[in-house]
Each structure stands twice: as structure tokens, then as C-alpha cells.
Amino acid sequence: MDAAEFRKSGKQMVDYIADYLEKIDKRQVFPDVEPGYLRPLIPDCAPQDPESFDDVFKDIEKIIMPGVTHWHSPYFFAYFPAASSFPALLADMLCGGIGCVGFSWAASPACTELETVMMDWLGKMINLPEEFLAGKDGQGGGVIQGSASEATLISLLAARTKTIRLVQSEKPELTEADIMGRLVAYASDQAHSSVERAALIAGVKIKNVSSDDKFSVRGSALKKVLDEDKASGLIPFFFCATLGTTPSCSFDKLLELGPICNKENIWMHIDAAYAGSAFICPEFRHLLNGVEFADSFNFNPHKWLLVNFDCSAMWVKKRSDLIGAFKLEPLYLQHHHHESGLVTDYRHWQIPLGRRFRSLKLWFVLRMYGVRGLQEHIRKHIRLSHQFEDLVLQDERFEICAEVVLGLVCFRLKGSNELNKELLKSINEAKKIHLVPCHLREKFVLRFAICSRVVESTHVEFAWQHISQLATDLLKAWEQNHHQQHQQ
Amino acid sequence: MDAAEFRKSGKQMVDYIADYLEKIDKRQVFPDVEPGYLRPLIPDCAPQDPESFDDVFKDIEKIIMPGVTHWHSPYFFAYFPAASSFPALLADMLCGGIGCVGFSWAASPACTELETVMMDWLGKMINLPEEFLAGKDGQGGGVIQGSASEATLISLLAARTKTIRLVQSEKPELTEADIMGRLVAYASDQAHSSVERAALIAGVKIKNVSSDDKFSVRGSALKKVLDEDKASGLIPFFFCATLGTTPSCSFDKLLELGPICNKENIWMHIDAAYAGSAFICPEFRHLLNGVEFADSFNFNPHKWLLVNFDCSAMWVKKRSDLIGAFKLEPLYLQHHHHESGLVTDYRHWQIPLGRRFRSLKLWFVLRMYGVRGLQEHIRKHIRLSHQFEDLVLQDERFEICAEVVLGLVCFRLKGSNELNKELLKSINEAKKIHLVPCHLREKFVLRFAICSRVVESTHVEFAWQHISQLATDLLKAWEQNHHQQHQQ
């Protein structure tokens, strides 16, 4: 395929994507396929000779689409949103076209520099303390990671290195293995599984800190476990606070936790993967209060800020902590400006070496929506979640299971977990909308997350009517069953 | 921006990318900018109100392009190739348009299943042993990682978990920390820095194994260090063999190393990041002989197989080893088909949770080039590297520093490292072509890597004439200096 053919097929693809997104509400949100559906539909091995674009293009509807879960459907209320917008798609096309690999400043200066400046823009939008910004000669700065998991891992690794060095300077008789065996990381019992995974990767212990009845970690709960662990000779070194937990969008109490971490020399990382985007609205910024105590902070514009996956925004107060954890400098990666101090080599800030020109997506989205456009998007979602909450509250058969702060509603039928599992099953088998569950303590709970860029009040209304009807049917069948069992 | 505007601006972007790539040889391969060039060119913060696509579009040439290193220019001979092709760009557009996040089977069945099947296609293209393929009920299988660094890290972590469990089952008195402190990973002294980094992340020791005079690790070298380490109570657990090292594209001797690793119960991972693509040509497949001894194997189609970054292909013989290293199952990620055995949840195979629909790129590229088209691409590059090698060999002032096997030529002026540093400096300051150096033992060496999809014999010829002329100028100046110093 040459440039001329690409002009033609590229435009065909642009129209296909526009059609797909424009009419996505007409597609069934969750696919009908069973595991293993795809293999029989395509050959066993790659063709020896080239096929035409038309052949491949036809197979998109035939082979791919029947197996796609449509994350951007206005009937998709599962997980958390995956961001998607036209400006981000345009930027990603450009990113692919340029196709540079920006692991160092010299490997493509624009790729590095736009990222530094965009992370400053974004940091200012959520009013991050100045220490987190790169500015002209700041010690902090931002970086685009692929995912919140990587941001958590990188910050935990930086904390591990920093602590090992500190302990060794105080107690030179201890080996690295001795210290590693005593390090403990902490996170809420509501924290995302990626935090536990980061500790597993780093080879250190991790402990859950109990959350309170609003699913928030309080200072007292952290202090209790720290005191116990220190008394038994362990070395607490890392706490991951969550703003907007995955199960219920609860918020750890930064203003209580931050001072404890600072006093105890514990690295505080804040994972605000979903909730972070809301902080661009002044009325939600208070949820971030206490970030001034943190060492690192992360949220995912690729969740809720209309920047397509992947774009996870991470900031640190001291870039030297990240870089110091890893810096390795083979000759083929050194360059002339290497020691200048004005240059950022982002490969020292992340797990992989290679990196795409992802800041283009931020640049396009922030400019083509403007701060106000993005605030509107966030506010619409939060308005819709409260609409759903109100509908649930008006129905006595149901209960709300956690405070609705942003775009997530946790709800259930009053009654057993079995009943609620049945309800979710009937919802997802009907495939008119798509939800996933969570556990809150012992309760099996349904999560209703406002996800799509194009979801409107009517879709929420439809979803509720549908759920409500399925509940009626279910309760009737349930009662009949119960009645029959009683008679037997 | 709505779908209608996207149709318009998307097509404009397609033309821009086609223009960019069609005329990339007219652009200076390496930019003129100094560090910090970009910040003064754009505002301090994001705009409050939306800007138009036209405003943003104009800034691409004004702000971005002056700072881009043009990786796809036929005058780019640095690092290793970054793949780029029109079919891959089309597939990436579609990937963005669908915008699903495929962390589990249910999150988008097509995303998971196409990946499994494409990895089988690709595995068959390089004639991987059947054990590495997923097939219908295989224990192995392939996964697309973001980078070779991640593949190395994941395999090292799987090996770490496996070894800790094994040692603990034999010696229950040992704690995990005790064992961690005694684990040792190994790689060639020529291995990529990401291997050392993986060990740093995992918190285990890593040792270099000395390579021979052809920069290859031999069985005897590995055996020597293993024997020493075992005698001193350490636990060897992981060896990363490299096929196609970054400095000189040398090959570790798999047929000697594999049996040792198998006998000693050491996980052998093969990193063939660059070289792997060449194994689709039967005449180069012998370089992969010995892969049958490996536990995991990785190469980067995003380097040399015309699939745009990121697409790093990794296979394992036992998927349970990868999954067992991490598996964590919160409720919101469980799904109906969870336990069926037919379902792959790729999030257990990788560091991040989220993942894009990257297998579309493989599907488009393999079909639209066909195996023969991709073989032609590889063979052209290798022909061109030998062309350059011949030119160097015809000039008595120069020497070839390592066997030219694939698309990389390591060469230098006979003489001091200082002289060669000066030569590289004059090449890169002239900015007609772009190269990076390496060290081979004590020698400072220039790396000439065939990179661009559109590089032809004339570009190689030009590059050599240019280097040769710069060498003439440099040697003259050098001699004059020497003469003057002699006279003083």
C-alpha cells in the first residue's frame, strides 16, 4: 500500500469510524458470541500473498464487530468510562504518522517537550501545588504513563529505592535483602488490585488498611497499623491513598493521612485514576485537598477527560526520586544535550523504554474542548448519576449503597446477595445495557457508572425503567419459587 | 467536534500524514532546536474556550515539526528501526475508533481472541515450536506487550515466583526474603539495559555473563559463573539470552545455553527484539535454533515488521507460569465465562490492567503485505546493510567491528576513540543523516542501522559518500593539528 492508496483507504476508515460512533446506540452493547467464536472465522495462518484493503475492510463488520463490547455506547454503564473524543482520535492519527519513539530528548525533542508542557497545563487545570510542576526549573514535573497501574508501580519502586538507601545509611550492617524483607506498603481495603500487584512485583509486603463505614481510610486506621508494624520491626515505606475507589468511588482522608505519612517518612502516592478528572471543576477540587502532602499523584485522562487510552497523568514532587530509582545509561542512548539539565529523558520515569507521542492527544483535546468544554462533560456525567440515584431512591425495593459523589451509583435490591446476583444476571443477559458488580463489605452490589461521551438523560431513564422492570419480573418469580418451596 | 466535523478534519489529517510520509526525505532528519525550544511557543496554560481544528492543525508545522526527529526518513540510520506502514496506521485508527479496553475476555471478546489467533499466525511465521502456540487447547500462547522491556520483566517475575515456590517447597524454613536475597539473574554483557532494569525492579541480583570475541555468550561462560554462584550459596533462576544485541546485533549461542538452563532449572527468556522479525525468512530461521529450550520468547514487530509502535510479541510455553505470578481477581473484573478454560484474560499476562486492540495492527499488516511482502522488506534491509559493509571494506581508513548478519553495520575509522567521536560529531552536526554510537569493549564504534521502510540503495550510497567526505575533512584537520603540535 502506497501513500496514494492510503489517502483513499484512510478516508474510508475515517468515515467508518464516524459512522460507527454516530450510530453506536443502534448496536447491542454486549456481544452474543461465545468463547472461541473467532478462530473458526479466519484462516489458520497468515496469507503468503497480499490481500487488498477491501478484503480486510469487509471483515471488520463480519469478524470483529460481532465480538466487540461497545464501550462508547450510551447503554454501557460498566467499569469506569474509557475516554473517547474526535480530537483525541485525530491526535492519535498524527502520533502514528510521525511514529517517533521518544525515549530521550534527542530521540524527538518535540515529543518530550510537549509532554512536559502539557503536564504543566493539566496540573494547573486541577490546581496542583506548584511543586508538582516542571515549570522552567522545577524539581517536580509530570509524565504520561500507560496506566495507573504503572504509575503506582513506578512510585512504589522509587519509594523502595529511597527507603533502602536511607536505612542503609543509618544501619550499614543491614543488607538490601534484610531491608526488603522488612519493608511494608499500605493501601485501603478498597484500593484497586493494581496496588497489591505493584507490591508483588516489587517483592515487598503489602497490608490493607481498614476503611470506615463510608469506605474511606482515616488517619487513625493508618496510624494503628503503622504503630503495630513498627513495633514488630517492620519498615513502613509507602502508602497509596485512593481518591475515587473502584468499587464505590470513596475518598481516603488525605488531610488526616498526609501529615502522618510525612512525619513517618512514608512516600504517599495518590491514585485518583477515575476521580481526578473531576478536579478540573472548582466545585470538586476540595476532594483533592491534602495533595500537598503527597510525593506523587496520578489520574487517568483516558478515563474521564476525553483523551483516548492510553494517557495516564502522573506527577512527582522530586523527579530525582524517580530517576534515581533506575538510571542506567548505555552509550547508544546518550546524547549531546545529556547533561544540560534542561532536558528530560522520560525513559527514566517509566517501565518501558519506548514511548509514543501521546501528549499530542492532550494538546488536541485541551485546545479543542477548552477547559469549559471539559468541565461541561464532567458536570453532565455527575448530573446523570444523581438522576439515576434519585430514580433508585424513589423505589422502595432498592437501596443506595454508597454516597454518590461523582459519576458512579452503587445500588442493590434490598435483600440477599443471591437476589442481586440474579438481577445482575438478568440485566446482562438481556444485553440492553451493561453493568458490572462489586462487593461492599459482605454485600453484592450493582455498579451503575456513567460512561459514554454521548449518554443523555433519556438513556439513564431507559436504563432505570429496564432495571426496574427486570426487578419486578425477578421478584415475582422469586416469590413464586419461595411460595412453592414453602408448600412442599 | 461532532462526527460530521471529524469526517472533514479526519480526511485532512489522512492527507497530512500521506504528505508527511511521501515527502519525508525533503525534511532535515534531525531537528535544529535547542532544549526548551517549545515552551515559549505556546501559552502557559490551557485555553478556557475551545479553539478550532484549523488553529491546532496550523500549529503542527509551526510548533511540532521543527522539533521532530524524523524516524522514518530514509536518512535515519540511528538506534534500530521503528516500524511504520500504511496498513498499521489504518488499523490503529480503527483501534482508536472502537476504543475498547480489553483487559478480560468479556471486556471485548474480539480484542482478546484476535490477539490469541494473530500470535499463533506470527508464531507459525517464524516456525516457533508448537508448545509456544495457543492453538485450541495449548498450554502456551502469545500476548502483545508494549515493549521488550515489559516482556523481559514479566518473564523474570514469573521465574522469580516459580523459583521461590519451588525452593520453599524443598526448604520450608527459608522465608521469601531469604530466598529473594539469594536469587540471581544473568544476561550477556552485551544485553540491553532493560534486562538489568527488570532485575532492579524485581529486587534481585543480576550478573553479566562475558561474551566471546564475537560478542556472543557461550555455554562455557554461563556454566562458569553458575558454578561459582551455586558454590557460594546463591540461587540462579533466570537467564536472558539475546538474539541480535543492541550494540552489534550479535547472537548468544542458544544451542549451548538452552540445555544448561534446562538442566539447572533456570528460566530461559530470549530477547530477540530487533532480530526476531528476520526469522520469517527461512534463510535466517537457523538463528533461532535452540528456542525449543526456552521458557519465553519475545520480539518486536514494532521494530522491523512494519507494525507501528507499540506491538511487542511475547510467547510462553506455560501460560500458567505467567498467570500464577500475579493472578488477583476482584469482583468487578470477574465475568460469567471466567472459569471456562477457553477464555484468556490478558491482564494476567502483563504489567498494566488496560490494553488497546493492538492485534488489529498485526491482522492488517500480515494480510495486506502477506508473508512474502514482509520477507521482501527484511531482505531489502539486509541487502542494504551488506551494501554499506562493502563500501566500508573498500576504504582502507575504516574497519568493520562486528559481523554483519542482519541490518546493522558497526564500523569505525582505524584509530583512536577520540577520532571516531569527532567523526560522529561531524556527521550528526551536519544533520544530513543521523547515527548513534556504541561501545564494543574499549572501542567507540559507529552504528549504521538500516531503518526506514523507504530507504533504498541510493540513500545508502549517499550516506557513505557523505561519511567518507567528512572523514577526509576530519583526517586532514587532525593531521594538520598533529603537524602543528609536532612543530611547536
TrEMBL record, chains A, B:
GO terms for cellular component: cytoplasm. Its EC number is 4.1.1.28. Transmembrane segments: none annotated. One of its GO terms (molecular function) is aromatic-L-amino-acid decarboxylase activity. GO terms for biological process: amino acid metabolic process; carboxylic acid metabolic process; catecholamine biosynthetic process; serotonin biosynthetic process. The modification N6-(pyridoxal phosphate)lysine is found at K303. Its cofactor is pyridoxal 5'-phosphate. Pathway: Catecholamine biosynthesis; dopamine biosynthesis; dopamine from L-tyrosine: step 2/2. Belongs to the group II decarboxylase family. Homodimer. This is Aromatic-L-amino-acid decarboxylase. It comes from Columba livia.
